[in-house]
Specification:
Length: 144
């Protein structure tokens, strides 16, 4: 009788262990497939964005007509781009930097070329007062 009991117990443990192994394998496979699905969705979103950028450029340079729905989106993009440019100029002022005229990246005020796109930029020369002495930025003398 004890042989039957331990034999049945061993078979039960084997079945439970096999189920656990199968479930672990299923979980691993499910996770792997879900990751692949997410990756494909990200790639599709990138392609949607790429198509949108191409269409926007074609409409902006006049080589493509926009229907009413797309024209509204193009107008929205232009409005946001204007706000972005304005905020970049404000940030450049606060950080005492400049905005590259070609790519819009913030650049140091003393560089001759944009480090991102390589566009030559005019370096502002420091203002020197007529009497030949350098101007002190921290102190401004006022007449009384």
């Amino acid at each position: 009788m004890s042989d039957d009991f331990f034999g049945d117990l061993g078979k039960s443990i084997s079945r439970v262990t096999q189920k656990a192994v199968n479930r672990t394998g299923d979980l691993f496979e499910t996770t792997k497939i879900n990751a692949q699905i997410s990756g494909e969705r990200r790639e599709i979103e990138k392609l949607y964005a790429k198509i949108g950028a191409i269409i926007y450029r074609k409409i902006a340079n006049g080589t493509m007509e926009a229907d009413e729905d797309i024209a509204q989106i193009v107008d929205d993009i232009r409005a946001h781009a204007g706000q972005l440019a304005s905020r970049r100029r404000a940030l450049a002022g606060v950080k005492r930097m400049r905005v590259c005229p070609a790519c819009g990246e913030l650049i140091a005020s003393d560089v001759a070329f944009c480090p991102k796109c390589g566009t030559p930029v005019v370096v502002d020369s420091p203002v020197i007062p007529e009497d030949g002495e350098e101007e002190d930025d921290d102190y401004t003398e006022t007449e009384e």
